[in-house]
Amino acid sequence: MSETRWSVGALAKAVGLTVRTLHHYDDLGLLKPSERTASGHRRYTEPDLHRLYQIRLLRQLGMSLEEIGGVLKDPEALRGVLRGRLQQIDDEVWRLTTMSRQISGLMEQLDGSRPPPSDELLTLLGRTSLFDQYLTKEQQISLGEQATKIDYEWLDTEWPAVLKQFVVHCQANTPVDDPQVRATVGRLGQIMRTFTGGDVGIMTQVGQFFQDHGLGVLRDIDPGAEVGTELWDYVSRAVQAQ
Length: 242
What we know:
The protein is mostly helical. The chain has three domains: 8-73, Multidrug-efflux Transporter Regulator, Chain: A, Domain 2 (Orthogonal Bundle); 78-147, no CATH class; 152-240, no CATH class. The protein is 70% helix and 2% strand. The protein is elongated and about 95 Å long.
């Protein structure tokens, strides 16, 4: 009994792909027909069909055509490619879980007796993502959960006031153990504990964020502030002096 053979059109119809896709696979070297007719027409065999099923399975796993080509040439590479793909999926699951938690918290606020305006909700969504690159996944989840519990009316008033007060202390070169400076540090501590839920690790990373990007934040709050990186050194020394 002779082995079944398919033309490119027949194979495309049988597996639910387009002729153009099969031509593309051929051009890339992913799936070349085992035979051709005397007139040059493609003829695909059972082994070709098996290879095509492998390609489609790997595509369903989210692999690129380049990755698939590497795996088909070297089956041992499959483990590494799958490991990378699994990490991507885990990251996406984490991202969606975090988003779900944030949305659930915002929905609870919307369903409350005094739901906040829509612009405040959008602001809330952007607050925690500011620090994402400095935090672990677990820390980001924790910060996202804490964000739904905060009185942002208080925070949006207190945070700029404390930052501006530190600018005054720094410009005046007020000793870091001065009672007024100690009081400002106390207010900063309350802000950090409220924002982070008291997580020391998150507070440390948020502090590092301001060491790296704090001047940009300061200019948004107080464009006229004439102070540089010495501000964050001053704040650090003031905190350590507590």
